[in-house]
Design brief:
248 residues; 15 strands; five-stranded antiparallel beta sheet
Length: 248
């Protein structure tokens, strides 16, 4: 069941999203060669709590970190630890914050120092794919118009869309209906309505679309070991289009 939010609920989620966006902004200062993913996690948790929220991911289904830190061939759900970032890496950071009972959720993939042209293209295409999808987020439109726009743009640049992981609704629960694939034909699925709050989050591989989960039962990596990227915003469907909640 898709839960449409009231204006008051969206107001709370707007603040949750703002805290997520501020946390991303804070972490960007520290993403450089030599820092560990565990140090980034500590910075993020301290910052989120300082702003009156709690990390959405900490303890979620047993997850140990406050944020997800996925490096290079790691797509999503990377557990913060002793891994040291190196020049030329890329790191996807997924941040969730729960404020007054409601969640905000956003992921971004960042360069570590100077990165290769291929890596930069992957980041650029994945970020643009997110916004291509968001252009289709409007009341009355079918959900998979978002999916189709993302897939079409990504594949036009010879990258692959991951199919095992999808976007989702969000609210008092971190993951709510509907599930939102980032591939598929247009004009399918439910019609978008004002009050829906959705996480759109294309996950894109430089090589094949196939992924697998490591023995830690969390970290998802590309099967071919090639780079991948992940960009995500939480949005609210409005009377005329959409509003990004995870922004400043």
């Amino acid at each position: 069941m898709i839960i449409c939010k009231t204006p008051r609920e969206i107001e709370i989620m707007r603040e949750a999203g703002r805290i997520v966006a501020l946390t991303h902004q804070e972490l960007k200062k520290y993403i450089q060669p030599g820092i560990t993913t565990k140090e980034l996690d500590h910075i993020a948790e301290t910052f989120i709590r300082k702003h009156g929220a709690i990390p959405s991911f900490k303890g979620y289904n047993g997850f140990r970190g406050s944020i997800c830190t996925s490096v290079n061939e790691e797509l999503v759900h990377g557990i913060p630890g002793d891994r040291v970032l190196r020049e030329g890496d890329i790191i996807s950071i997924d941040i969730g914050a729960k404020y007054n009972g409601y969640h905000g959720d956003s992921a971004w993939t960042y360069p570590v120092g100077k990165i290769s042209e291929e890596a930069q293209k992957l980041l650029d295409v994945t970020e643009e794919a997110l916004y291509r999808g968001l252009q289709e987020a409007k009341p009355g439109a079918r959900l998979t118009n978002i999916s189709h726009a993302i897939q079409t743009y990504v594949e036009a640049h010879n990258f692959s869309v991951v199919r095992e992981y999808v976007g989702h609704g969000i609210g008092q629960d971190l993951h709510e209906d509907p599930q939102i694939p980032h591939y598929g034909p247009p004009n399918k699925g439910p019609r978008l309505k004002p009050g829906m709050v959705l996480c759109i989050e294309p996950m894109v591989n430089a090589g094949s679309r196939y992924v697998r989960t490591l023995e830690d039962n969390w970290t998802v990596v590309t099967v071919d070991g090639k780079l991948c990227a992940h960009f995500e915003h939480t949005i609210a469907i409005t009377e005329t289009g959409y509003e990004i909640l995870t922004t400043l």
